[in-house]
Amino acid sequence: MKIRLFLGSTLLLISGLFTVQATTVPEKAAICSGCHGTDGNSLVQEYPTLAGQRALYLQRQLQAFRAAAHSNNKEGRADPIMSSMAATLSDAEIAGLAQYYANQPVHKATKPIAMTDDAGKNLFDGGDLSRDIAACAACHGPDGKGMAAAGFPSLLGQTPHYLVEQLQKFKHGDRKDDYQGMMQDTSAKLTAQDMQALAEYIAQMPTD
Fold first, then answer.
1. 112 lies in a domain?
2. Which of 31, 32, 66, 153 could form a disulfide with 86 if both were Cys (CB 3.0 to 4.6 A apart)?
3. What percent of the chain has pLDDT over 90?
4. By the 8 A CB rule, do 205 and 130 touch?
């Protein structure tokens, strides 16, 4: 009888722990839904889609936002909204949120756009040797899904507006959280037309 009671209590305890773990991440994710959508697919062009993103990349970004909050923006990635949001997150909560969003299906960002030429596709697939611009596909993959092991992000599901904004931030030094400054170096060589062409091409890439 004692053994049965012990086993029963243990199972209830384990069940309770799993219930807490299962509800903690969605509860935290609910706070993010105002900007990033209830399922991680943002409905606001200024904010990124998190659904389907590489977990390691999301984890690093949240850690960078938290570092900025704890260092008065001297370290990490400073952002007036995200730094405050990430300031109190624990390592476990960050890892849980990253995995939660990585597991959500991503939706295509825009309806089909009439592409006037292949400028965006050509830059993405092959870069431009004459200007020493590396191909986006080299790090983000030919399908735009990124590289999990390296922590390079997926670009799928992002709006043209958001993509151009991030390229501009890298170009002008407002964002410096890229690996070995690769995005800063690449974006510095891109024109506004290059950025728009790339963004429109990426936004229409298949997400399945």
1. no
2. 66
3. 75
4. no
